Amino acid sequence: MTKPSPKDMALAQQARLAAVVMCGAIVGWVVLGWIGREYGWDPRYAFLIDFAALAAFAFALIVTFRVWRARQNRR
User: Fold this and answer.
1) Is residue 60 within 8 Å of 23, Cβ to Cβ?
2) Which of 71, 61, 62 is nearest to 12 (CA)?
3) pTM of this prediction?
């Protein structure tokens, strides 16, 4: 079995970053939404939480797309 190249390792690291960001966004969104409902936070905080989750998902989507494109160009 051949050793992965440094470019492959960098792409794998970026893919892991995207996965961690997505998981963190999902968990944070659910937990903060639940806490906000339990403690009666103002609805504007719910929008802030939603927008933060959307920003994290957009970041993860962009990173995932860049990894996909980099792998397509290597073929």
Assistant:
1) no
2) 71
3) 0.87
Q: Which tens digits make up the pLDDT trace of 19-74?
A: 999 999 999 999 999 999 999 999 999 999 999 999 999 999 999 999 999 999 87
Residue type for 48, please?
L
Query: What DSSP letter does each residue of 7-61 carry, written as one string?
Result: HHHHHHHHHHHHHHHHHHHHHHHHHHHHHHHHHT--HHHHHHHHHHHHHHHHHHH
How many whole angstroms separate alpha carbon 66 and alpha carbon 51? 22
Query: Who's near 21: CB < 8 A, 6+ residues apart?
Result: 56, 59, 60, 63
Nearest to 32 by CA among 53, 57, 55: 53
